[in-house]
């Protein structure tokens, strides 16, 4: 699979240089979807930007989305509105932020209500048991609603740079497993 067929969807405030998404971008050549405003994320703007990137990208191969935090909410919101979901083969959803938490509601108003429809492509959701932005119970609710396989990362916080994951080889292995499951069988 072409590295450009993997789109990185950072969350609120983007992913800094020590974040595993940035490290994967540097090491593997995956493409980051740049948002116009990382500090004041408006759901409609972020959906439109993802749609633009998907429509202007290569047409020969569906992509795999790799989302972190609010990026997971972006995937669900985009998939609930887009007529172009066939351009996505699968999604790896990591540490979904919960914009409906009391502390986040005032700054993420446009992200509520959360899209809770089944995703029309394969997905895996990796969550932490002690994520300060989304309880494990809520992450499991998202996984169930979105039709994603749930994987617990244990006690890893928000699975970001503060979690000191480095290149996060366990997460990359999950991505490779997801991608391998979607490859057509080789013909003899």
Number of domains: 1
Structural class, from secondary structure content? alpha/beta
Portion of residues in helices? 25-40%
Strand order, sheet with most strands: 2-1-3-4-5-6
CATH class placement? Alpha Beta
Q: Which word captures the global form?
A: globular
Give me the CATH superfamily. Alpha/Beta hydrolase fold, catalytic domain
Alpha plus pi helix count: 5
Low-confidence stretches: none
Order of helices and strands: EHEHEHEEHEH
How does this model look, in words?
With 188 residues, this protein is α/β, with parallel strands linked by helices. It has five helices and six strands, in the order βαβαβαββαβα. Strands 2-1-3-4-5-6 form a six-stranded parallel sheet, with helices on both faces. Helix 2 packs across helix 3. The model has no long low-confidence stretch (mean pLDDT 94).
Strand and helix layout:
Layout: E1 6-9, H1 20-28, E2 31-32, H2 43-56, E3 63-68, H3 70-81, E4 88-94, E5 122-127, H4 136-146, E6 149-152, H5 169-181
Parallel strand pairs: 1-2, 1-3, 3-4, 4-5, 5-6
Helix pairs in contact: 2-3
Please describe the structure with a list of short key phrases separated by commas or semicolons.
188 residues; alpha/beta; Rossmann fold; six-stranded parallel β-sheet; 6 strands; 15% strand
């Amino acid at each position: 699979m072409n590295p450009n067929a993997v789109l990185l969807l950072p969350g609120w405030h983007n992913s800094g240089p020590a974040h595993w998404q940035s490290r994967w971008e540097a090491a593997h050549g995956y493409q980051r979807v740049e948002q116009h405003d990382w500090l004041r994320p408006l759901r409609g703007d972020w959906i439109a930007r993802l749609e633009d990137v998907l429509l202007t990208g290569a047409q020969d191969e569906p992509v795999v989305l790799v989302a972190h935090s609010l990026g997971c909410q972006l995937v669900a919101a985009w998939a609930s509105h887009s007529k172009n979901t066939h351009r996505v083969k699968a999604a790896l959803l990591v540490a979904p932020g919960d914009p409906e938490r009391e502390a986040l509601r005032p700054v993420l108003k446009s992200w509520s209500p959360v899209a809770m429809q089944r995703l029309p492509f394969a997905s895996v959701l990796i969550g932490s048991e002690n994520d300060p932005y989304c309880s494990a119970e809520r992450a499991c609710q998202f996984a169930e609603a979105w039709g994603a396989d749930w994987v617990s990362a244990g006690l890893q916080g928000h699975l970001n740079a503060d979690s000191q994951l480095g290149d996060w080889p366990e997460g990359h292995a999950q991505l490779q497993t997801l991608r391998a499951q979607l490859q057509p069988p080789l013909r003899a």
